[in-house]
Amino acid sequence: MALASFDDAFRFSKMVASSEFAPKDFRGKPESCLLAIQHGSEVGLSPMQSLQSIAVINGRPTIWGDAALALVQSSPVCEYVREYTEGEGDALVAVCEAKRRGYPQPTVVRFSMADAKRAGLAGKSGPWSQYPARMLTLRARGFALRNAFADALRGLITAEEAQDYPAPELTPVTASKPQPKPADTAAAEDMTKARRAIAAAKTVDRLRQISATVTERLDAGFYTPTQASELVELIDTRVE
Fold it and tell me: Which DSSP category does 91 fall into?
């Protein structure tokens, strides 16, 4: 399914967020759905694939390891990706070989149990205790795919890797109320005018014109996604 405009994407996001089929982290959060769809589209994922494959971990968009592998394998520049393990127990090593077409040698990454111990991963409760070989494989895969196919992943790291990073510590501070920037003031004033225009619109065509303007200003960075979403909801209410 193709979403031709911001309006289409946001309406779809609202529908998904209110559905029981939405992943739990996206339920009731249409804005999060929209951003996941946007990040997914940048690496070639369909809207539903994006919702299943993109996750926000510690405030950063990431992609699940199996989805990253699928993206790379579908890339025309991928010749092969091979994964295997060597050794057993504390000597266990996961290996990932990723080969680009036209390159003489593959990118080879090894991630061992010793590496996991140095990083404080081995023995952690959860998957690292239950499926250590799988977790070593995912870590080797993440590094190899990013090294060899950064163009296909567009800077996304794997969700499994991000989950192992500690959440950033936030120190609360008391700050003085910032003065609004000129651009913020201009956007706020324009939002007020847009709300009035939506309320005064007498035809569906006029509402469509306003919707197109909202999309243009979002694309130009004049509106934030939250501001644009508010106006789209007002337009939808009038159309209904």
Answer: G
* Predicted local distance difference test score (pLDDT) of residue 178: 61
232 alpha-carbon distance from chain centroid: 22
- Given a cut of 70, is residue 65 above it in pLDDT? yes
The DSSP code sequence of 5-36 is: SHHHHHHHHHHHHTSTTS-GGGTT-HHHHHHH
Tokens (6 digits) for 85: 């393990």
Residue 79: partners with Cβ closer than 8 Å, 6 or more residues away: 99, 100, 101
List the alpha helices (DSSP H) in the chain.
6-17, 30-42, 47-53, 65-74, 113-118, 127-130, 132-148, 150-153, 159-163, 182-200, 204-219, 225-239
pTM above 0.90, yes or no: no
Distance between CA atoms of 100 and 149, rounded to whole angstroms?
8
